[in-house]
TrEMBL record:
PANTHER family the UniProt entry points to: AMINOALKYLPHOSPHONATE N-ACETYLTRANSFERASE-RELATED (PTHR43877:SF2), AMINOALKYLPHOSPHONATE N-ACETYLTRANSFERASE-RELATED-RELATED (PTHR43877)
Designated name of the protein: GNAT family N-acetyltransferase
InterPro entries for the chain: Acyl_CoA_acyltransferase, Bact_Acetyltransf, GNAT_dom
Domain of life according to the entry: Bacteria
Residues of the N-acetyltransferase domain: 1-150
Length: 150
């Protein structure tokens, strides 16, 4: 498995991977649709980064680093193909985010999640994310807020 930077060829996999988990557990919300349909203009053109996980010639995972006004980055849209879960791909994607954010001089990583996504929350805690009090979110499903100070 390798972690690579997003390229236009990844657009369909980016959308497919995220739509899979969103429709399995929740619904696709307006902000989801904006980010999934426009990763270039919504994330990359604003100084963000998207990492894709590839294995055996197939794109099997993704995650985004979205710049925040305070100099930090939001970790968003982490997804791993259901067939590939449990193999450490999500952890490798998260570690790529942490490494990139540190290299960019970010003060912190931030994320919003759901208490229904126990494996994801466990991963975030294992790599050092701490829980925050609730804050406003564009996502109805968000009921967990976390940060990792860098």
């Amino acid at each position: 498995m390798t972690i690579v930077d997003f390229e236009p060829r990844h657009a369909e996999a980016w959308r497919r991977l995220n739509e899979a988990w969103l429709t399995k557990f929740f619904v696709i919300e307006a902000k989801d649709r904006l980010v999934l349909d426009n990763p270039g203009s919504v994330i990359l053109d604003k100084g963000g980064h998207i990492f894709m996980a590839e294995a055996d010639g197939e794109t099997v995972g993704c995650v985004a680093l979205i710049p925040m006004d305070d100099g930090g980055y939001e970790v968003g849209k982490m997804a791993v193909d259901e067939r590939m879960q449990g193999r450490g791909y999500a952890r490798k994607l998260m570690l790529a985010c942490i490494e990139k954010a540190r290299a960019l001089g970010a003060r912190r990583l931030y994320l919003e999640s759901s208490s229904h996504l126990t494996p994801a929350l466990t991963l975030y805690e294992l790599v050092g994310f701490q829980h925050l009090p609730p804050s406003p979110s564009p996502y109805v499903r968000a009921d967990v807020w976390m940060e990792l100070k860098l």
